[in-house]
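User: I'm putting together a small comparison set for a docking exercise, and I want a reference complex before I start. The sequence is below, and the ligand is ANZ. Could you produce the 3D structure with the ligand included, as structure tokens?
Assistant: Of course. I'll restate your input first, then give the structure tokens for the complex.
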Amino acid sequence: MKAGYNPHEIEPRWQARWAAARRGQVDLDHAARPFYNLMEFPYPSGEGLHVGHVFSFGGADTYGRFMRRCGYDVFQPIGFDAFGIHSENYALKIGAHPHDLTPKATARFREQLRHLGAAFDWSREVDTTDPHYYRWTQWIFVQLYKAGLAYHAEATVNWCPSCKTVLANEQVLAGHCERCDTPMTQRRTTQWFLRITRYADRLLDFSQVDFAEAVIKRQQTWIGRSEGAEIEFRVLRTEGRVEIDHAASVLSPQSSVLVFTTRPDTIPGATFLALAPEHPLVEQLTQSSGPQADALRGYVERARGRLELERQQGEPDGVFTGLTAVNPATGARVPIWVADYVLASYGTGAIMGVPAHDERDARFAAKYVLSATDDRPSTTDHQEAEADIGRRSSVVGRPVVRYRLRDWLISRQRYWGPPIPIVYCDRCGTLPVPEDQLPVLLPPLERFRPTGSGVSPLATIDEFVNTACPACGGPARRETDVSDNFLDSAWYFLRYLATERHDVPWDSERVRKWLPVGLYTGGPEHATMHHLYARFISMALYDLGLTPVEEPFARLRLHGTITKDGRKMSKSRGNVVNPDAYIARYGADVTRMALLFLGPFDEDADFNDRGVAGMARFLGRVWELCATDQGRKTKDESSVDLHATPAAIGDQSSSLVFGLSSFVKRVTEELEQQRYHTAIAALMEYANWLRGPGARLTAKEGADARRTLVALLAPFAPHLAEELWQRLGGAGSIHNQPWPVAAANDTDLTIELPVQVDGRLRDRISIMALADEATISAAALAAPKVREAIANRAVRRVVVVPGRVVNVVLE
Ligand code: ANZ
Ligand code: ZN
């Protein structure tokens, strides 16, 4: 590294000054132009900050700094998601207690994050393990319970044999535990659920938000809305055959099987029915006796042991029930099978098999049904079937809408989380803990290892479990499960807005002012977990009149994953890149920029050393250009010749302005779209041009050009830019300067501005670069698609960000 540029001297000095000046803080109550720049708060793992954090936080911070320069009051908080299985598993692994480990890990994270030089508002840190925080997590649960949105029910649920807890469907990835990657099993137990399914249709409405396409797609697939029909298939009552006897005893004369299909047009092609192994009819059949019942019992046992993924995608596995039904369209007899590719939790838990149209049905039929034809009772029963269908005039069915989404299972049989605030009393039943008794504190417990018995280790603490009933005062027992840590994170962005208050979970006035979040930067893995849960909780709280904002995030963008040698970083592979070493060697500015320069922000990128060294050379050149006499040396003043200047432009000085203007425009547009890598490429071109022989500038032009470079570089390399700005004689902090406006003194120069209505892009207007705000807002409101989007609603205000965007905010 060039001796001149010394980040180790510059960075701590500016960090200390910014901290002393409380630079990251905003006045939440009086900010004139609020912009909430949210990034997913980390769980403070024992391993410390990951290079991926530097990438995602670096990118999000760059955007926040840019918005601040565009005149917004940017709120950019940070906190710690320190409860949960991940923190607890880590503690178990290294033989420590999460209660001791968490504050240490948090302190280390805080320190590392400070070294990044991100403009966080440290005065509003949240920590989900703080009783002042989880008191309100519990309070939210109580509100949901009172509203019928939280319920206790028995269900077949996903069980991780390694984490020894149940998990929500969202936390089972391709049949494996989201936390530890162990193959999941299933259990039938009583658990707490949140009624997210009631919000399925609202969660599918993306008209008010501007989300990354990938998030919308994943949420749509996960919620899985299907329009179809439920069709009734009569089950034949056939006497006289051994295998059917056992069925006769459980079937009523009107027995029928209800199937769900999205293709009612294919009913004539249905050649068999298949029930999920957990279907109630199967359960009934297994309770009778005889060889058929034995076969069924054996099969159901086997199906239970099979992983969900295998059931869905592996070799089909089934067994004949001994029963036959009638195809209502053709009158044909169709055998009823049990097949484990049929899910109990979807549709009616029963399907009609249409081998001619459905690939899975075809595979199943190929394996069983066709070869099983001989086994089926024929002739005499067939006549009965004909007679039976003769008695009915048409197919019995009704249109239905089905969702793949299941209710959110939030019970965890673990220690490190907020206890679910419920009390069970023999006399009074299930009761929420009264609000004035919250929080239910997580009691200290040395032996916190999950037991695997299906109850939380909290059940071993008598003083915790035994309590007084809040209604009758009699002896009662506490719920001992803790809640999913995705409930902690489903509302943290509300808590940031009221951290100084312990009497309320959030402040509705501030929520109204700051939400929806202007930009949320998050990981793709959260699309069907955190992002979905946070939307659901916000909608539920809104419906209960507890918050004024229904959709929490106006704009949601994903960041890619940083890999090493093409593979996800993991300790076991030994390919984890620790950012500390790079920050120690090259400084935070270089490390942040090198990561952002790897590729598009929303795509995965492979980390390499060369990029860091290259970025260090680039910032070294910027230093040389702006901070040294040699770099500042004035070139021949008589012949200004800018290769970036269109020939048509008149005098040399205005050409320079125009040349700068095109750079400013480029960097601005790239930043606006979070294309950090191409913005950095533009900065490199600009710096190279300034250093090159083509740029023969007057002293004043040279100084302006350098100041512009530093002004554009500041969101990316906040320390270096601050230092150079000062050395170039700039006033105040560069981070308080207005963003350079991409306009020349050429009044004919028109620019294009995107117009958003409530954060959603609706139209573009062409306008003179130097037009004033009133002209710009009038033009924006007159744009056809904007008028269409406003329709009959009232406009609350029009926000013009010069040179960048117009945002129309509706009432
Ligand atoms: C007959 C049929 C013919 C079907 C055809 C599809 C294509 P989506 O679109 O995902 O909602 N199905 C219904 N319930 C099921 C369950 N519990 N487990 C497994 N599969 C189930 O899928 C709906 C289709 O998936 C339904 O329509 C049904 O098969 C199957 F050419 O009925 B179909
Ligand atoms: Zn009681």
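The CA atoms of residues 132 and 502 lie 7 Å apart. The longest helix spans residues 652-672.
User: Thanks, that's exactly what I needed.
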